[in-house]
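Run folding on both entries below.
>entry_1
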Amino acid sequence: MTSICRGEWCRSLESDVDRLEMELHDVSSEASTFIAGARVEEMSNKIRLAYRNLGPDIHA
């Protein structure tokens, strides 16, 4: 049961990250500077890195 809950939580978190990434992309698309795009990329990378560091058994 624990692995099922983690799986559902994992999918939910991935969905939230994807939604945030799309929102950040929309903001970046409206911005006219390279710096804004770089910040979106950096934020996306930090979110994904933090997600990977939650633990090795998160997908168990």
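>entry_2
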Amino acid sequence: MTKITVGLGTLLTLALLSSAGCAVTAAEPTKADGSTTVASAQATASEPAAACAAQAQAMSLKQQAGQLVMVGVSGSLDAAERKAITASKAGSVILMGNNYGGVKQVAKLTASIQKLGGGQLLIATDQEGGLVQRLRGAGFVNLPSAAQQAKLTDAALTAKLTTLGKSMASAGVLLDLAPVADVVPASNRAANRPVARLGRGYGSDPG
């Protein structure tokens, strides 16, 4: 399995994203000349598209459909979940249970999941911070809620998210379904139970 590494910025809690079978490493520009850099980037960018197209064409219709399926898995990975992954030819899995055993425990779980998918599953979870943190324990930083994150400096937040992204990658979780981008008006914050009252939003100013 090959990987793509993507910087997701200071508002995302994961800095690494893995995609099975389709990857390319951008060449470092050897000159300061702008045209040379652009040409190199364009040539490199065309490579993963061709690789992905070839891999998709080699799949059966069921396998192609399975790439659109994300199976929910609890911390136990029971028989029904195992069957759902293999029978659907799922392309991705989301860890829905509360995994509080730290990085090592989650790494064992994701390794078991990957065996079911031939090592090519994209494994995700919800790790927003605050009340919504599926992964806890040794090796995982305790991330504050989005409302509290908004009060941190860029440098402080970047440091926390970089640490979290690395620990999640070590645990085999390479996609974070966060953050919540909803902007709740100040006049409605008290009544907005799903986002504002739980501290899942960054504030009331979309700018």
